[in-house]
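Internal ticket #5521
Category: modeling
Description: The requester needs a full-assembly model to guide mutagenesis choices. All entity lines are attached below as received. Residue total reported by intake: 593.
Assigned to: D.W.
Attached entities:
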Amino acid sequence: MNRYDDNTIQMLESKAKVVRKHIVEMTHSAKSGHPGGSLSSADILVALYFKIMNHRPYDTQWEDRDRFVLSKGHAAPALYAVLAEAGYFQVDELKSLRQLGSRLQGHPSRSKTPGVEMSTGSLGQGLSVANGMALGARLNRKLSRIFCLCGDGEMQSGQNWEAAMLAAHYKLDNLTAFVDRNQLQIDGPTEQVMSLEPLGEKWMAFGWNVIEINGHDMRQILEACDRAKEVRGKPTMVIAHTIKGKGVSFMEGALQFHGKAPNDDELRVALKELEGAQ
Amino acid sequence: MKWVYTSQRKEYSNALLEIGKTRTNVVVLDADLSSSTRTIDFAKKFPERFFNCGIAEQGMMGTAAGLAVSGKCVFASSFAVFATGRCWDQIRQSIAYPKLNVKIVASHAGITVGGDGASHQATEDIALMRTLPNMTVIVPADGIETYKAVKAAVDWEGPCYLRLGRADVPLITSMDSSFTIGKASIMREGSDVTLVGTGQMVALCINAAETLHEKGLSAEVVNMSTIKPLDQDALLSSVKKTGAVVTAEEHSIINGLGSAVAECLAENLMAPLHRIGIPDVFGESGDSDQLMVKYGLTSGKIVEAAEAVVRRKGE
């Protein structure tokens, strides 16, 4: 079935390109931040905020809104870029990332930034919070769907598995989570630091519906969310296979751009590549 | 002094049941200890608003945060050692930093946990919670004060930590006495020495004051039921009068009530101070009364300390 026409896909891909440009620009401006993991998550975030999620940038407290938790909080540049493009705040505020007094903190802050649902940054915590939101939506009799994006290195953190158990136990089928499976963490490839595989099987064993996709294929991201919506009685985990640093050739698969901002030359090359990309 | 004893956990339960009736946004979480913390009573009465999170305190705090941002007033309970220790970072990051409406009500604080021993005896929980910005720390003195504190917490916007004991404790307040978060109560007036207690140690301070009276010393007893924010005005006005202070808590002498009082005095009004509490050691198994004696948490020790600080006056 081809629910999404080519125009929709193209619109989302263009938006993702703009978001990627913002990511490299704002980290460059801040001289710090996490471009690699922000770039690998960009397509998922664009798909969520520009197609999947029901939300109102002009009414952040809208009771019926869907909610998103960025559990891999260091990908804040990607979230901020998406929120700005969606209209939660002005695009030119992005260059204030990490500056003293900025509304755009190094890791998401619920109290400082319009559109940020939960403060994150200490890994492994977001999924539990998403569980609480899912329970809350149910108690409030809302049809809101809750989305959570985790890192793969983050999966090493025990609290995620507490969250996995709780979500399955309470049958939180209004919750769809993603793992940005870019295979890298700070100290090296995940499988060398602390192996995660078989990751999908682990989530299935915990009672989740698991879908594996190419995390840079818009159609696959959208269809995964649609399928998750149809599953009753189980939360869904989408394992999105991605490339860390996706979109910028010298950042793709590069460990050092986990937490290092591009310098002037690197920014120039990055923008040129993103501009020229299809 | 002959005391009537009350159960703080039972009064927590009573307060929750009452609150649950009218405040439909109240949700209660526990981590497999609901039959001990008594949240089980709320669970039976309002099953759709109770969630057992299993032996997973970190998950429980995150879940509490998610419910709080969904408009709920969340009570999360476990034993003090687990509720504050295992999930300290979760409380910090997901509750204190975003200032969410989560009330952590922990029971089994201090050494009166008894036979379970050191692993279960929280002697650092006040310290852990006090050091978090945006966290209000309340230690009710008895059952009735617990009931009032829980009801006050529901109306208090933001993160709260309430510390309860396992054992039944002497009733020193009454339904008529007032309770306000952030306000200490003067249980007994005096002029020679200030005894600042918290939790069940306040009753021991009152006992000590009676003994001191027989020895010719007039002791003022302050029930410091809120450790943070500390009622600095009440403390300083008492110490201005008496010139000497003893603090008493069923908690380490490091970073609990004693430290909070010391900080306030050192910055405002120097006076000889002695902290009664657990002397920077872990607890152990034993009968709770025996443990109180072994670890120096007695009215006799408070009397000795009071006499000592009075002697040090004018140094």
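Resolution: model delivered.
Comment from assignee: The mean pLDDT of chain A is 97.
Ticket closed.
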